[in-house]
Amino acid sequence: MSGRAGRRGIDDRGVCIPSTAKMMVKRSADCLNSAFHLSYNTLLNQLRCKDGDPENLLRNSFYQFQADRAITDLERQMKVLQEERDAIHIEEEDSLENYYSLLEQYKNLKMDVRDIIFSPRYCE
């Protein structure tokens, strides 16, 4: 990152090292992510003010801007993943479905047996 290269009020001019400036120009910008976190105190302060509007605060925050901007990428990723899911072909899918059904029946019967064993009638 770069700032003012000089001491405010003391130096007439700032100094910038050319190699550092060259790197800054050639390099891509650092990713900037919002660190906005809405707290109860922020909400209470917004409600306390006459012109305070918490919904407007959220709507116009950088965090919301980034979230809205990411929607198109997320929808594109979802579409790609759905196409991949639909392209999957499972051999003998019927037998796997039958096996899963049997496993579910086994779990239910096991729970029924446990309930019978631990019922007060049979604990004596």
Could you describe the 3D structure shown?
With 124 residues, the chain is mainly alpha-helical. It contains five helices and no strands. The longest helix has 26 residues, at 62-87.
Task: Summarize the structure in short.
This protein is mostly helical.
Uncertain residue segments: none
What string gives the helices and strands in order?
A: HHHHH
How large is the radius of gyration? 31 Å
Helix content: 55-70%
Based on DSSP secondary structure assignment, what is the total number of beta strands? 0
* Anisotropy-based shape: elongated
Mean pLDDT rating: 83
| Cα end-to-end separation | 76 Å
Could you describe the largest sheet, including whether it forms a barrel?
none
Strand residues, percent: under 5%
Number of helical segments with 4 or more residues: 5
Overall SS class = mainly alpha
Task: Give descriptors for this structure.
124 residues, elongated
How do the strands and helices of this protein lay out in sequence?
Blueprint (H helix, E strand, L loop, with lengths): L17 H9 L13 H9 L5 H6 L2 H26 L5 H25 L7
